[in-house]
Amino acid sequence: MIELLEPPRLTVPSTALKTSYLVGEQADMRHRGSDTSWLTAASLDFDAFVAERTGVRERWGVASELFWFASGEYYVGSLVIRHELTDDEGGGHIGYHVVYPWQRQGHATRMLREALVKCAGLDIERALLTVAPENAASIAVVRRNGGVEDSLNDEGEMRFWIDTASA
Ligand SMILES: CC(C)(COP(=O)(O)OP(=O)(O)OC[C@H]1O[C@@H](n2cnc3c(N)ncnc32)[C@H](O)[C@@H]1OP(=O)(O)O)[C@@H](O)C(=O)NCCC(=O)NCCS
């Protein structure tokens, strides 16, 4: 296994992570059987790809910010924080993924914990997480971070609330 010299942290997207990001995402997309075509443009102009994803931006009709979870030159995963909920609450406040080569090493659990601290700093007192019922890994991650189950949403996803002050 690769030894990380320091624990990964949430960081702003960075061109310095180009190789690790592209290879990690390609491995993850192929493992999931997902479309990899978006990686072509990203690999041809990574500076533009990063610039388009940096800072607080209006997405899904609300202010949102993307972070990468990384240690040194290693990209581990991505996480988005929506500063407020969309009208249908779709996706909740926080969405994330850990790329396949780095899964099952506790990274998502730690990444979400760090995001909850950021949410507290944004005055989000209770963060909403929505998870498909069949996504056992994400349900475990949310429960390990104190997620309290609420009713299902209209898409049949599980809704969890996390008190960010306890993060
Ligand atoms: C969900 C996801 C982020 C978990 O990332 P991760 O870094 O592997 O999570 P952790 O290592 O913190 O795992 C937490 C626990 O979930 C459980 N888990 C992890 N992967 C699992 C799997 N494939 N099947 C069942 N349980 C799993 C385990 O209990 C694990 O702890 P353990 O390995 O010590 O037993 C990752 O699988 C992923 O990116 N999936 C695709 C995108 C996604 O589902 N995002 C969340 C949308 S709500």
Automatic annotation (TrEMBL):
* InterPro entries for the chain: Acyl_CoA_acyltransferase, GNAT_dom
Q: Which residues form the N-acetyltransferase domain?
A: 29-163
State any single GO MF term. Answer: acyltransferase activity, transferring groups other than amino-acyl groups
Q: Which domain of life is it from?
A: Bacteria
Write the record's keywords in alphabetical order, separated by commas: Transferase
Where does the chain cross the membrane? none
Q: Name one Pfam family in it.
A: Acetyltransf_3
Q: Does the keyword Transferase apply?
A: yes
What PANTHER family does the annotation carry?
A: ACETYLTRANSFERASE
- List the protein's name: Predicted acetyltransferase
| Record lineage | Bacteria, Bacillati, Actinomycetota, Actinomycetes, Micrococcales
